[in-house]
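ugh ok fine here u go
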Amino acid sequence: MNYDVIIIGAGLGGLTAGAKLVKEGKKVLLIEQHYVPGGCATTFQRKGYTVEVGLHELDGFSDSSFKTKIFKEFDVFNNVEFVKLPEFYETNWKGKSFVLPENIEKASQKLINEFPDEEKGIIKFLYFIKGIDNEIKNMPKTKSEKIIKSILFPAFYPKLVKSSKTDVGTFIDSIIKNEWLKIILLSNLSYYHDNPYTASLFYFAAGQASYYLNGSYFIKGGSQKLSDYLMKYIKDNGGEVKLMNMVNEIIIEKGKAVV
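structure:
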């Protein structure tokens, strides 16, 4: 059997690539060693509970988000239900608890009320996150814009430049002193990395901005619903998916994969 593309791994990346390729008319084979698709976007049952493997919540769906565009292209919104969450997350530490709102204005007010001595640092933190989002939205769209903004990049994108040179831990330490507040602001750092002092500030800030500005969502029924739908989309559009198959070797002949 000949295929235009063989994708190894049916995580969200493989599923999305497969869906895009079959829509473009390519003959696609997607191979996955697990018995269900999704990778970290899967669920399993234990004692009557549905347990998420990794995708606990999604950031919101702004018009400029690549995720929004992809979901619209594959008709995800009409086939998978997303439930808006009333808060971003809850942090518990040494008997203390703090629920962080997903709205940036509400989050700012609640944080300042709780930590009035850290008001300047809180404002700097949230202003930086919001600024990153604005600069990303302002990326060049036309050829002339690309030329001008590439020459004057630091002037157009000061926060992008700064974030590319700084890690999360160093940035937080420079504006916040209270350890409890630091823990609250970085409670979901594990979404992106496991060490604040090696984590990219740009990657963290861009991700957090989407939660603060666009809200948090849970996939009704669990993330497996999304993965199953994308697999179905691939099959319905002529693609082939083989679960419980492991790839041990890729044989190359004349610069091309043949098996």
